[in-house]
């Protein structure tokens, strides 16, 4: 009843033999174990337990080489391979369900509507790395997701899919649902681990990387919800099959969260390499710009990624193509804004967020985001001064690449990109003490 | 004790799952917060006596996480997302609308202690914007009519 009313392309996925994450997300019973199994669920888990060796599971995932869907895009199989084979310590898997990158609302749908799919992916990943206690870190506000995952977990335990000696395989696997306390930084993998350990959610200095010393100083893998939800499909149909999805270098399908000034905002599963223009304009997806206004810009991969101008959106949504355009795929959150949007106002919203969410551990990010917010707020309020843009540039350059975790870079990238792509608008704001176009959006 | 027997049992139950007791801090705070509506040093002491972790360490964690309000607030906590996707869909005007309707500004609580209004960062409902969370429940694709109806229903519950 509290299902997110978000639009999905489940109908398209149901007909496709390539799309798989969204096939059943409009089926209200998909969260029940029986329905999930009827739809082919837990088959991969059984297949793995029935006779695949952990190394074979890793090899299968490596064959297709999917990249992490949480934002950083690290190859999943390769990451699993970093777990030391000879360590006597326990290993842990943590599913990252902190979903808080502005624009991103995809993991939530998977957890709410297909929770067993997430658990199955977690279980297979755990098996692959030799983990017997897996965690899912769900952001605290996602009360309903936590309920759904917990209910699914209980059912999985009750029917023998989790627990001791699963299906007589001799393999034990326990699961803990850990909920957060409202901090974006806890999505960063080392802050997430600190948060599970009961500390303040601050990032750790790397190395050591979590695969070597993660949770409780033991080898740990952190993977995004969507990354893990893809795993059972790779096991069921094989890495070679998965490789045929998407492009040569960016394989697989990906959920894009489309938000902002489009007619049909929603979550759409498409193969990587899908046209961004089509996602925004096609009737089956975004359906075009709200009020048929002129497009002004797009943030293609969540609020931390650089902007694209209208003449840059003829691009395929894959890791490589977006880098070529100077941006990034990130978490796959496409935020669209039309001609009535003031870019200074957009940046004001974003820098407020990053300043608020900075964990405060390192100086460039803690102080720098504060300074940036002050200057940007002043410009937005019409009090800009000559030299402000140079000062912003300077602060950005002193944050970029000089912080403990990537939040610093994330804060800076959209600002630097806006200064490059929309500099005239910033200058106008400073010279005239007001917006070139006023963002004045009513709701409903 | 402020924490009820039910909360205490829930905390004990949850704490048992973890390999290390300190990991129970966040779940314990969550359970306490759900019961009380805020957390404070008295609550930290109580949690401390249940999970046997120094209250200082509990305070240390609690003060990092913004979701746990540190002061009493209204019965219904209205949290409006004011991040980018929601702002593009009119979050600013939604906030003004709520301010006018409730006769308070953001950060404040109505005189009858029923509603507290605050703004929050992205809540993962960007494609169903604008949105607000009231206590545990998400309300999405908001329109003025929907807001009126939601507030009316909550008021009538009392
Ligand atoms: C500030 C910050 C916030 C992040 N938030 C999330 C998040 O909410 N969810 C997520 O899966 N990854 C997030 N990440 C990325 C994680 O650090 C990590 O790379 C990811 O969970 C690994 O999983 P993957 O390889 O499956 O993508 C964040 C990173 C940073 C720097
Ligand atoms: S970059 Fe920011 S969020 Fe990351 S560790 Fe430094 S202060 Fe914390
Ligand atoms: S921006 Fe408001 S929910 Fe994401």
Termini separation of chain A comes to: 22 Å
Structural class label of chain B = alpha+beta
Strand content of chain B: 5-15%
Separate helix tally of chain A: 18
Give the number of DSSP strands of chain A.
10
Low-confidence stretches of chain A: none
Strand order across the largest sheet of chain B? 2-1-3-4
- Strand line-up across the major sheet of chain A: 3-2-1-4
- Write down the overall geometry of chain B: elongated
Task: Describe what you observe in this structure.
The complex is a heterodimer of chains A (444) and B (158). Chain A has 444 residues and is α/β, with parallel strands linked by helices. Helices cover 41% and strands 12% of the residues of chain A. Chain A has 18 helices and ten strands. In chain A, the strands form three sheets. A four-stranded parallel β-sheet of chain A has the order 3-2-1-4, sandwiched between helices. In chain A, strands 6-5-10-8 form a four-stranded mixed β-sheet, with no helix packed on it. A two-stranded antiparallel sheet of chain A has the order 7-9. Chain A is globular. The mean pLDDT of chain A is 97. By secondary structure, chain B is of the alpha+beta class. Chain B has two domains: 60 residues, Arc Repressor Mutant, subunit A (Orthogonal Bundle); 81 residues, Glutaredoxin. In chain B, 47% of the residues lie in helices and 11% in strands. A four-stranded mixed β-sheet of chain B has the order 2-1-3-4, with helices on one face. In chain B, strand 3 and strand 4 form a beta hairpin. Chain B is elongated, with a radius of gyration of 18 Å. The two termini of chain B are 26 Å apart. The relative contact order of chain B is 0.12. The model of chain B has no long low-confidence stretch (mean pLDDT 97). The interface between A and B is large, with 66 and 57 residues. The site of iron/sulfur cluster (SF4) has 14 residues of chain A, from helix 15 and helix 17.
